[in-house]
Amino acid sequence: MEKLKKHLKWIIATGVFIVITGVILFFFLVQEQPDPPFSNAQIPEPISADKSDDKETKEKKNEKISIMVDVQGSVERPGVYQMKEGDRVIHAIQKAGGFLSDAEVRSVNQAQKISDEMIIYVAKKGENYSSETPSSVQEETKININTADASKLQELSGVGPSKAESILSYREENGPFTSIDQLLDVRGIGEKTIEEWKDKIELQ
């Protein structure tokens, strides 16, 4: 009887050991299982940019600045016309109805880009367009950097009230400009600005 009890205890102890070992092995196996792959439902959709905003930005980039030109001389409808930045003389002439039959076509450079306030003059045949009349495109009046007031200075591209005052202040403190390069000493004016102004300003 005593031996039977000992034998039974040994069986129970062995069973408990087996159960505990099985639980531990199961725990480690579960821990080592790789994460399941994402299903299509679990993958988050990328956030797309607002297409309408992107389209609006592109339209603004492609939008050209409107400018005004005066077409005179031997054209069908002389007058002032609204054009777009990047247009050429031929486009303005076409808008004015084209050349008349007596037009001296060679008096204008049809491939030249137009600029705001430009005068395009088409001479008649036999007319001395090279000297007695304006050339194909009259040059804009240059701004005298030494005599212009704040209002006149603001006609230069990139010049507002503040920059105009800076130019006037420099002129008062240092006297008239003797070279275009002196403009580099004025706050807010760099080499790029001077390059853009060199054909639009004068010192005398």
Q: What are the salient characteristics of this protein?
A:
Outer membrane lipoprotein wza fold like, Competence protein ComEA, DNA polymerase, domain 1, alpha/beta, 4-stranded mixed β-sheet, 204 residues, elongated
Could you explain how this protein is built, in words?
With 204 residues, this protein is α/β, with parallel strands linked by helices. Among the domains are: 64-138, Outer membrane lipoprotein wza fold like, CATH 3.10.560; 143-202, Orthogonal Bundle (DNA polymerase, domain 1). The chain is built from 6 helices and 6 strands. The protein has helices at residues 2-32, 51-62, 89-95, 150-153, 161-174, 191-197, and strands at residues 66-73, 79-84, 118-122, 137-138, 143-144, 201-202. The strands form 2 sheets. A 4-stranded mixed beta sheet has the order 2-1-3-4, with helices on one face. It has a two-stranded parallel sheet with strand order 5-6. Strand 1 (66-73) and strand 2 form a beta hairpin. Residues 131-139 have low confidence and may be disordered.
